[in-house]
Amino acid sequence: MSLQEWFKMKIMFKIVLSVSTALNFLSFPLIAMEKEEKKVSTVYKVQKASTVSLTKKEEDKEKQTGTSTSKEKTGDSTQYLAFGKKGAIVVSLKASIPDSLAGEKTEAFLKSTKLELVKTDGSTDPKSICKKDVGYSFPSISPWCLITAGYIKDKYESSGKRLSLGDWGCGHGFFSAYAMIVGADPYALESQRAAAEEANKYIFGAREYLPKGLDIRTLYKVVLGSVTKPSEKFMARENDVNVAFNVLHHLSPSDSDLLLKNMFKNTAQGGLVVLCCDTPFDSSIGVEYFNQSLQKKVTYPGFGLYNKSNIVFKDTGKKSTALLSVCRPTKKEIDSLKTGQIYMGSYPQNDLLDDTQTLFVDDPDDTQKGNILRHKAPYYYRNFYQLLNKFDFEALKEVVEASGFIVVNGWYTDHTLDTLYPHDSEIDTSICKKSKVVIVGYKK
Ligand SMILES: C[S@@+](CC[C@H](N)C(=O)[O-])C[C@H]1O[C@@H](n2cnc3c(N)ncnc32)[C@H](O)[C@@H]1O
């Protein structure tokens, strides 16, 4: 695409967005869900479940071992074949877009989403941290979006019926818009008004990428609410696909259980669940803490308190500018903090911290490779902290299955790559940082 075309497209998109914004403000929260599926004007070419493909190496291995990707992995779950595949899965945006909508325009629209911090104070400075920053909205081209959209597209094309989708903690609605384009009716839930409004605008702005003849107002809905306490109306619609992308790690263990329980309840029989969460592998300190917790056999081994601080050690007087500390918060502490939010300001009372479990990284260069120091009583200032839940595949599988789902498969991935690496194989961390774990399950 030439620079000129790109600018043209950008201007067009802005116009569409501003008109849709105006319309949306009039109609938020949105539009009745109840509707009859309109006849899709285009008959899509029915393709094999081919948005996921094996790497060349995998294919060779299969030929050698005689294993087949078409082999069922989980009892009667024929529809989850694509997810049951062994080996790395390469996904592509192009392959997930229906033929009739394929083309640079749709792709450019989906690619235009970028990592965006969800802010609720109206601030636009990406560096500032406000009291209610609640996390990032991830681009549509993230592998968990691609794999789920591929599934939706294939099911829609083979059945001719749109899939009902629950998008729990939708952020800016990037995935819901994508899913709507490829064949879903999204019902998106978000606890932050600013993010929900953003999602509403963005999804509405995707209407020109729909097959002709569809009324977008009958296709999607965004509602303000909590994943731990969704409204009866939200729960009343059973979904063929339920996703919670990058939400579970913002919740406390008890809230995570509630989310999963609600998702299970709200998934149709035979329906799919896809989750994506942060892992502890982004730092050695995180891994150490995670492994220690695993040994203690706690159900949510990666639930901890992460601090970034300016620190001055009492004994050496040494200053450190970047610091990460991890510890399992006490019940009192959990109650005193609202999860899902990042706070500015000094940390509350020191006696809320269990110093024996608090590890400090001496990392003045911010390499996260510094020595781990176990200062008994360091003198420190904290200016930033966040409660997060982190998961490896096994830990996530345990909680997902405890809620009733049957797990089909899982992978590690970066959010910038198009490859999902199998959870049960060694992953070259110079290629994939294993920053996210993705899991797929279904309700029997
Ligand atoms: C990291 S963002 C992810 C957004 C989006 N799902 C994605 O992957 O791009 C987490 C989102 O979950 C929302 N969230 C956190 N706790 C929530 C809750 N209890 N109920 C509903 N949404 C919640 C946040 O407001 C935020 O928009």
CATH topology of the largest domain, anyone?
Rossmann fold
Task: State the CATH superfamily name of the largest domain.
Answer: Vaccinia Virus protein VP39
What is the name of the CATH class of the largest domain?
Alpha Beta
Small molecules bound: S-adenosylmethionine
What's the rounded overall pLDDT mean? Answer: 74
Helix content: 25-40%
Largest sheet composition: 10 strands, mixed
Distance between the termini: 46 Å
Q: Can you count the beta strands?
A: 18
Number of domains: 2
Structural class: alpha+beta
User: Would you identify the CATH architecture of the largest domain?
Assistant: 3-Layer(aba) Sandwich
Rg over alpha carbons: 23 Å
Shape, per Cα inertia axes: globular
The percent range for strand residues is 15-25%
Low-confidence residue ranges: 9-76, 344-358, 366-383
Can I get a quick summary?
By secondary structure, the protein is of the alpha+beta class. It is built from 13 helices and 18 strands.
Overall description:
Helix 1 packs across helix 8 (193-204) and helix 7 packs parallel to helix 8. The strands form four sheets. The protein has a ten-stranded mixed beta sheet with strand order 1-2-17-16-18-9-8-5-6-7. Strands 11-10-15-12 form a four-stranded antiparallel beta sheet. A two-stranded antiparallel sheet has the order 3-4. By secondary structure, it is an alpha+beta fold. It starts with a helix and ends with a strand. Helices cover 30% and strands 21% of the residues. It binds S-adenosylmethionine (SAM). Residues 118, 134-138, 169-171, 174, 189-192, 195, 226-228, 245-247, 250, 340 line the site of S-adenosylmethionine (SAM).
